[in-house]
Design a protein that fits this description.
- The protein has 338 residues and is of the alpha/beta class.
- It is 31% helix and 17% strand.
- It has 2 domains: 95 residues, Ubiquitin-like (UB roll) (Roll); 220 residues, HAD superfamily/HAD-like (Rossmann fold, 3-Layer(aba) Sandwich).
- The chain is built from 11 helices and 11 strands.
- Strands 7-6-5-10-11 form a 5-stranded parallel beta sheet, covered by helices on one side. A 4-stranded mixed beta sheet has the order 2-1-4-3.
- Helix 6 runs parallel beside helix 10 and helix 10 crosses helix 11.
- The chain starts with a helix and ends with a helix.
- The structure holds magnesium ion (MG).
- Its EC number is 3.1.3.16.
- Its cofactor is Mg(2+).
- One of its GO terms (cellular component) is nucleus.
Length: 338
């Protein structure tokens, strides 16, 4: 891990220093790690930065720091409220999960979706502090391409939990929990779209789940990249407090010659994940209780039709994706009239 930590520290050292940025030394397991955070970050985000250099998952970390009491156990607390100093060292207690099966019995937490008002969405998206968080994340997060971006293709970004897979039900074989028509959907989409999978869980879980479902080595489509929780940013809303979201600007900044707000669409069962790019998100109906719903769920089939119907449109952000079902009906009627 020492090599990775120095690489991460080196990346952080070249990023522009702003007034409210703090460089923290974190002691863990006999070594010291450097993380750079800023006052607008939450404790949850600090834990993610520590995860990047130590591989200890945020939920496994316990942070200790002089004179801050229990505030460090509240993931939504802002670091600016903790009066951290570069001169004092933080101690982290936690263990790396070498055994992936720990995660299988302890799947990601479920947080129900909530609606944000239109004004609030615009405010969050345009807030300078959030744009700055995004810029920092762009500098810090490396996207590893599994397959090259393809010229002239649009981009489809997919969530996993409850979108492609019911991660809360149990089954002897994970295939039983896969949303129906997943491979047919990905095969059809691949003709017009590059595919990136972005989950709010960690990369081990993403690779394990997608591998088990046969998504990573399918003969009929290729996945361009996998993204995990470390690529997300935390934003604050007046009515809902702090929450994490998936800013597509991170992908657009890494591959500006291929992807932009004009050619990207993202499917997620949590609408708040789109808050930094509301025009590019489609809130998919969650796939829950796989055993009961496996026989009837046709969401991916209908969404295939939608994806292909809009593939010729120059600017995908000009369409209201919440109307996707009536768009499908209209295009069906148009075809019958031709
Ligand atoms: Mg989900």
């Amino acid at each position: 891990m020492a090599g990775e930590s120095s690489a991460a520290a080196a990346t952080l050292a070249v990023s522009p220093v702003t007034e409210e940025e703090i460089t923290l030394t974190v002691k863990w397991s006999g070594k010291e790690y450097t993380v750079r955070v800023c006052g607008d970050d939450t404790v949850g985000e600090l834990k993610r930065r520590i995860c990047e250099v130590t591989n200890v998952l945020p939920k496994r970390q316990k942070l200790l720091y002089p004179k801050v009491g229990s505030k460090l156990s509240d993931d939504s607390a802002l670091l600016s409220q903790l009066s951290l100093k570069s001169s004092l060292k933080m101690t982290m207690i936690g263990t790396v999960e070498d055994d992936i099966y720990v995660d299988l019995v302890d799947p990601p937490e479920v947080v129900d979706d909530f609606e944000l008002g239109q004004d609030e969405v615009i405010e969050i998206k345009d807030k300078e502090v959030n744009k700055q968080k995004l810029r920092r994340r762009i500098e810090q997060y490396k996207i590893v391409l599994r397959n090259p971006c393809r010229e002239g293709k649009k981009l489809l970004v997919l969530d996993i939990d409850y979108t492609l897979f019911d991660h809360r039900s149990s089954a002897e074989n994970p295939i039983e929990l896969m949303r129906p028509y997943l491979h047919e959907f990905l095969t059809a989409a691949y003709a017009e779209y590059d595919i990136i999978i972005w989950s709010a869980t960690n990369m081990k879980w993403v690779e394990l789940k997608m591998g088990q479902l046969g998504v990573l080595d399918h003969p009929n489509y290729k996945i361009t990249a996998l993204l995990d929780h470390l690529a997300m940013i935390t934003v604050q809303s007046d009515t809902r407090g702090v929450f994490d979201c998936k800013p597509l600007g991170l992908i657009w900044a890494h591959f500006p010659e291929f992807y932009s707000s004009k050619n990207t669409i993202m499917f997620d069962d949590l609408r708040r994940n789109f808050v930094m790019n509301p025009q590019n998100g489609l809130a998919i109906k969650p796939f829950r209780k796989a055993h009961a719903n496996r026989g009837t769920d046709e969401e991916l089939l209908k969404l295939t039709q939608y994806l292909l119907a809009i593939a010729d449109i120059d600017d995908l952000s000009s369409i209201d994706h919440s109307d996707w079902e009536s768009f499908n009906e209209d295009s069906y009627k148009r075809r019958r009239q031709e």
